[in-house]
Amino acid sequence: MADKTFVDGAALVASDVNTYLGHTGGTWNTWTPVVTQTAAVSITVNEATYHRSGRLITVTASVTASSTGTGGTDVIITLPVATKSGYVTLVSVLGAGRIFDQSAGLAYPAYAVFASASTIKLVSTAGTGTLGTAVFTAALATSDTISLNLAYEAAAG
Q: What is the pTM of this model?
């Protein structure tokens, strides 16, 4: 069933209530994330979906680089829905991610933290610093993949 908005005068039926009470209502929406590592990195979207339940945004994404980034710099990814005002802080962990370096055959796990109200950056799980300066110092390259699973509170609306 597609997301519904109640409209004055509309009929609310038992199946609608049962669907939402069973947490099966609503749709997953697609979006195209933008990935930067100093400059934009061209990507192929393998999956990029999000679900909105009130102000809760749940995100899952997997993208493959089809161009290169700049080594030693942060990997920044846009969010599908902006976060609530004042929520942006680097100590707010939204979820987990990883970069898979295809040429080296290595996976780099990371926390996803806010970079701005509409972007995240990946921070090393191995200590301090971001992936661009601590663990993943290489440039994103063709065939490298980034995977994300996030949850955060959106701006009202």
A: 0.79
